[in-house]
Amino acid sequence: xxxxxxxxxxxxxxxxxxxxxxxxxxxxxxxxxxxxxxxxxxxxxxxxxxxxxxxxxxxxxxxxxxxxxxxxxxxxxxxxxxxxxxxxxxxxxxxxxxxxxxxxxxxxxxxxxxxxxxxxxxxxxxxxxxxxxxxxxxxxxxxxxxxxxxxxxxxxxxxxxxxxxxxxxxxxxxxxxxxxxxxxxxxxxxxxxxxxxxxxxxxxxxxxxxxxxxxxxxxxxxxxxxxxxxxxx
Length: 233
Known about the structure:
This protein is an alpha+beta fold.
């Protein structure tokens, strides 16, 4: 009898655990449906975005400004996860809580950017937070007159980032706190309340007059709201 009760209790506990996992999974929303880019819109430059397999591919264009594939929905407090495959000669990033306003530089996309790039210039700033088209580096703080992130942060990044491979990035934005992880390792821990809400955007950096098309990729882009708002289906 005791054995039956023990088994019953164990099964009940397992049911509760699995139910919790299922509930947690239901709270995630996929920002990319794997079929089309209907929930996104391009702002800024003339880089192109296309679907290739399970990934969104952004490809550079010559003589244009930074380009952004922006979510049509805006988000406040959230956890964002995605995988990124970089290019050694193309800087990139993912915008969070960002805006495009008529009264700010004629709709120039601006706001928090999680820096992403393969190591191309003896640096690795991935996971740092840059304020696009506004204040510049926020985390780490600018280290010298060239306005580069602190050397220690860059050196640590080299040990975490995988050049030429997929890297998993996690971003947590809640209130005035923005934190990032790259491949499970903590990178940025910022306190800033300038912009509490905005869209998500995938950046393809400008390349000047270079005509060779350079591409970066994102996949498994998902978001969990933390502000009590229901997940959009």
